Amino acid sequence: MFEILATDGAARAGRLATAHGVVETPVFMPVGTRGAVKALGPDDLRAAGARIVLGNTYHLFLRPGHELIRELGGLHRFMGWDGTILTDSGGFQVWSLAKLRKLREEGVEFRSPTDGSTHFLSPELAIEVQHALGGDIIHPLDECLAYPATREAAERSLALTLRWAARAKAAHVRGAGGRQALFGIVQGGTWEDLRRRAVDETVALGFDGYAIGGLAVGEPKETMYGLTELVAGLLPRAQPRYLMGVGKPEDLLEGVARGIDMFDCVLPTRNARNGQCFTWDGPVTLKQARWARDGAPLDPDCHCYACRGFSRAYLRHLFMSDELLAYRLLSLHNVHFFLDLMREARAAITRGAFEPFKARFFARYAVSSLDVSRDELRPEV
Amino acid sequence: MFEILATDGAARAGRLATAHGVVETPVFMPVGTRGAVKALGPDDLRAAGARIVLGNTYHLFLRPGHELIRELGGLHRFMGWDGTILTDSGGFQVWSLAKLRKLREEGVEFRSPTDGSTHFLSPELAIEVQHALGGDIIHPLDECLAYPATREAAERSLALTLRWAARAKAAHVRGAGGRQALFGIVQGGTWEDLRRRAVDETVALGFDGYAIGGLAVGEPKETMYGLTELVAGLLPRAQPRYLMGVGKPEDLLEGVARGIDMFDCVLPTRNARNGQCFTWDGPVTLKQARWARDGAPLDPDCHCYACRGFSRAYLRHLFMSDELLAYRLLSLHNVHFFLDLMREARAAITRGAFEPFKARFFARYAVSSLDVSRDELRPEV
């Protein structure tokens, strides 16, 4: 299902084939939390060049429920998206969003933050839910360790995640997931030896690809980059590597440089709703009065609908007036920008010029990848 | 600028040519209050078949200001809409939205409801603002009488509106509005003789078309229909007639039957944001649990993007989850429906079958035009 077409240092350009098409990597996946990438339609996503989106098992399990989605023909048909879908396992959201979590060997009991109802998710049920949703790439339920955590907690958590991974794999094999790829998730907190153990034991179970979980949860950037490099270097070369929940444009490039093929983050859509736009010249905050009379497009080098049709002054006016169109146009632009960044990275890898591309990007974008605060990387609720 | 192509009883099918294209009538104009039809982009409006949209002078005057829009090339360019734009004069919004209005012969002083700032609008300034915006069809400042009103208040108000209309006409002739058409507004409250006087004196001033104002403000439906019929029957046959702020699908057909060519209302977009969708089988309220597992499109006879791509169950899920995409898709559908209704009415007039078309519409839509409450016709703020 995965083919590496070119490499440049640790960076790889590849093709990921799924039941719903081909995805060129490295790739950024817009997040469709509740069966929609916020403020965007499938037409917008296609126009931005998206070929893969992420769906959140946790959110869809709670509402409208996986049985309803199965009954209506699966998530692709439900959300009108005929491209590839990756679903996460719900582990991260149970950890970050749910109330009154009770973690047991069998699974995790939690309360919905919206209506207080009690739910139980086990590794087997998480797979069953994802079989019902029908995503092309699915994941085992994992425990997402808090940061910082004690060594003892990290060991206990990793052991549980590994036992759950084995159960998830068994459930997937038993179930009707023939056309669905199952990725393993590498946890292990910030301990290098635990990360090594996580890679060894996860790879030993055998998955179609590997996600790196438990990063971008508050640790310093150096730690995140270092562990990404370590884990990516240990994972099987021939399979896709997915860095979960990352990140900013600079994080994406640093991840690609370390051998990551896939990323997802709510950043482009959530920041759009706060009026922050990503451009090749760095972020633009539309609230600032300096844009009020600016007739230029958001990013003169961008070919998205928002940049082709409208001025900064107009987009700012929409945003300041709470016009819903602002959220669509700014989200469309930001997603387009993230996808463009990955397209450019892919092209640079193919011609063996990823490092100069990355250096030029940082020179113009004017953000050092190590000095940006991480406070905007919390998950979308 | 206006050509009648076919008539059927009092109903007319025509073509309205402006500096930004040809509009086929009868036509419904989506309302772009603040330089955007709420939740929709120009691409959505085009896809729905819109060729003319309305802009609110009052809102754009307050924010971002007409000078800014002039500086950036006018409202068409500002909002990325290359079709026809009609702007109202601001009179209705001053009356319905502004605080602490002080009405004088010279004009009206009011406070912005958003920031409390004081503003003054005169007939001359309202024209200057609309010249700056550059809409294809503009309107004189009028006083919109409250309902109910005393005979004395109605007479005084009409006289002021007529004096303002003369000043607006003079300002338009003096100004640079050569490519802009100026419509007159017929007021006069609920008194037939005042409405007759309003028609006589407004027509005597000479305008490019005539709007009927001061209806759909709380009076009974019979009164609205009766006064529409009276005024439409008195207006010059060769010029377009625009019934301001109307209305529901049934009101549009009743207006067309009485000789109205143009309508505008926030109903399709505002009700969309409340989860109410218009269909040929009557309104659908998506909040209702009955739609939760319904795999059918919103309206099987509609060809809009929302109906082609998604089920009622999905649209309901988006709406119940407060997903922004819900507002776009439902607004798109409702606007498409209103425009379709007018397209079908036009076709029926052309083949001399408007009355049977209207009867079939009501039989299926199952709403009597006289028994619908009017509480949803308030203006968008």
Q: Overview of this structure, please?
A:
- The structure is a homodimer of 381-residue chains.
- With 381 residues, the first copy, chain A, is an alpha/beta fold.
- Chain A is 42% helix and 18% strand.
- The first copy, chain A, has 15 helices and 17 strands.
- In chain A, the strands form five sheets. The first copy, chain A, has a six-stranded parallel β-sheet with strand order 4-15-14-13-12-11.
- Chain A is globular, with a radius of gyration of 20 Å.
- Chain A starts with a strand and ends in a 16-residue tail after the last helix.
- The relative contact order of chain A is 0.14.
- The interface between A and B is large, with 37 and 37 residues.
Class derived from helix and strand content of chain A: alpha/beta
Count of helices of chain A?
15
Give the chain pair forming the largest contact, with residue counts.
Answer: A-B, 37 and 37 residues
Gyration radius from CA atoms of chain A, angstroms: 20 Å
Report the sheet-strand fraction of chain A: 15-25%
Number of strands of chain A: 17
Main sheet of chain A: which strands, in order across? 4-15-14-13-12-11
Helix content bin of chain A: 40-55%
Outline the biggest β-sheet of chain A.
6 strands, parallel
Q: Catalogue the unreliable spans of chain A.
A: 371-381
Quaternary organisation of the protein chains: homodimer
Shape category of chain A: globular
Distance N to C terminus of chain A: 32 Å
The chain-level mean pLDDT of chain A equals 94
